[in-house]
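REQUEST FORM: STRUCTURE PREDICTION
Request ID: SP-0412
Submitted by: Lab K.M.
Chain count: 1
Length (residues): 91
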Amino acid sequence: MATIDEESRPESRVVSDFHTNADVDQDKEALHHTLGAGPHQASPGSHKHDGTDSFALLAEVEITGSRGGNTALASVIAALTVLGAKDSSTA
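STATUS: Completed
RESULT:
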């Protein structure tokens, strides 16, 4: 790790001013991100994906079909594949 000699190190006030004016949550390339559920925020480690503190994980997925047969199961499997599950089930 490179070290900076004391004479070339900026004063703490200057560093603070830079951070005050830094881009925060403006877009995905922003230098700083706060925690939250916004599109350009970082999620806290305690997020639940239930829509309260992050986006709802299955918000755009609709489960269809009868619960009495396998059509609802097929719909659940399709929803899980949207989330990245690999469907290796057979008919």
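NOTES: The mean pLDDT is 85.
Reviewed by: T.R.
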